[in-house]
Amino acid sequence: MKVEDFDFHLPEELIAQTPLEDRTASRLMIVDKKTGEVEHSNFKQIVEELHEGDCLVLNDTRVMPARLFGTKEETGANIEVLLLKQGENDEWETLVKPAKRVKVGTEISFGEGLLKATCINELEHGGRVFKFHYDGIFYEILDKLGEMPLPPYIHETLDDRERYQTVYSKEIGSAAAPTAGLHFTNEILEQIQQKGVKIAFVTLHVGLGTFRPVSVDSIENHDMHSEFYSVSEQTAKVINETKANGGKVIAVGTTSTRTLETIAQKYNGEIRAEQGWTSIFIYPGFDYKAIDGLITNFHLPKSTLVMLVSALTTREIILNAYNKAVEEKYRFFSFGDAMFIRPIR
Predict the structure, then answer these.
(1) Of 104-118, 150-164, 230-244, 297-311, where does mean pLDDT reach its minimum?
(2) Burial class for 21, CB neighbours closer than 10 Å (0-12, 13-18, 19+)
(3) How far apart are CA 201 and CA 230, in angstroms?
(4) Where are the alpha helices (DSSP H) in the chain?
(5) How far apart are the C-alpha atoms of 207 and 151, rounded to whole Å?
(6) Is-contact 151 211, C-beta < 8 A?
(7) What share of the chain is helix, strand, coil (3-state, %, to 5)?
(8) Tens of pLDDT along 324-340?
(9) Is 159 exposed, middle or buried (0-12, 13-18, 19+ CB in 10 A)?
(10) Residue 117 clears pLDDT 70, i.e. is over it
(11) Which among 13, 108, 145, 202 has most CB atoms closer than 10 A?
(12) How does strand 78-86 pair with strand 107-110?
């Protein structure tokens, strides 16, 4: 299967640069999983699309203000550091610009010495491992010094940091937001629960691999990035009961999907409480075992996310829906509109 098979024409003006004032004001394209029939609606309609006995699964990760601007202690040169993955003992895997100026042993100072870092390893593609030095609580310092790492296709500044967080974000650790969840408010979640729909949370810390293009011609040769996930006993119980009682499991976003399918593939459809690292790659031909439906945003052409969405129905159905979204001038990507792949009832 070729990467080119997941290409489509996307005018640049359809890439949403800022969030809507009202989170729920976005449009909603409803795609029938079986027939591919497309309906145009608004996001508030999602309440009507969910049924008593269903389970809605949300990713409660919280985005770190992971972009830091510092200076080399030796020369005073400006260095940008993006935190990606936390290791042990205050060590972090990062992306650095300009990477050529940072070698093993290089020391960087942030916030006039409030936070310091020493490079201890060089990785590919501008990657560096730093050991950080500080007094106090790391995340409090990060909150003071760091900036929100918006995706590379967003060129506007974000006035309110919380608009790049879901209203239910809790577990800090992501380098990017699980953007399908940005449409939800506490009010709409209450309405969903009042219908008898269970809400369950998983955690997957989103890495920047989400935005990396597929650089091989054949999909099967692509290596996925690894991301940390965690699922609680309570969440596993709710999802398994939903499935046993004939309800539908609706994932909010590709990150919730990847978390559930990582576990379900191991245990023949059962969800168990566990945590670990996943590099699951979902593309057409994949046998979904956990989820029945999906709420998601509109993704980049030729991306692994378009492949994941296509695998839940068919490539032809998804590309047809995407072409209609372009015709109807839907807003794309992180701050854009939503799609609901409606499960078979």
Answers:
(1) 150-164
(2) exposed
(3) 9
(4) 46-49, 138-145, 186-194, 233-244, 253-266, 304-312, 315-327
(5) 11
(6) yes
(7) 30, 30, 40
(8) 999 999 999 999 999 99
(9) exposed
(10) yes
(11) 202
(12) unpaired
Q: Which residue has the tokens 């809605």?
A: 56
- Sort 289 into a burial class: Cβ within 10 Å, 0-12 / 13-18 / 19+: middle
Q: What crossing angle do the helices spanning 304-312 and 315-327 adopt, rounded to 10°? A: 120
Residue whose entry in the numeric block shows the structure tokens 């699964």 = 57
pLDDT in tens, 219-277: 989 888 889 999 999 999 999 999 999 999 999 999 999 999 999 999 999 999 999 99
The answer to whether the CB of 302 falls within 8 A of the CB of 283 is no
Indicate the helix (H) or strand (E) that contains 97: strand 91-97
Alpha carbon distances (Å) from 44 to 23, 40, 183:
10, 12, 9
Dump pLDDT digits (tens) for 152-198: 788 888 889 899 999 999 999 998 999 999 999 999 999 999 999 99
DSSP string, 101-122: G--TT-EEEETTTTEEEEEEEE
Contacting residues for 223 by C-beta, under 8 A, at least 6 apart: 279
Structure tokens that stand for 262 in this block: 């990582």
On whether the CB atoms of residues 176 and 63 are closer than 8 A, the answer is yes
**pLDDT tens across 15-62, in order?**
999 999 999 999 999 999 999 999 999 999 999 999 999 999 999 999
Length of the chain: 345
C-alpha span between 92 and 129 (Å, rounded): 6
Partners of 68 in beta bridges: 81
State residue 156's pLDDT score: 83
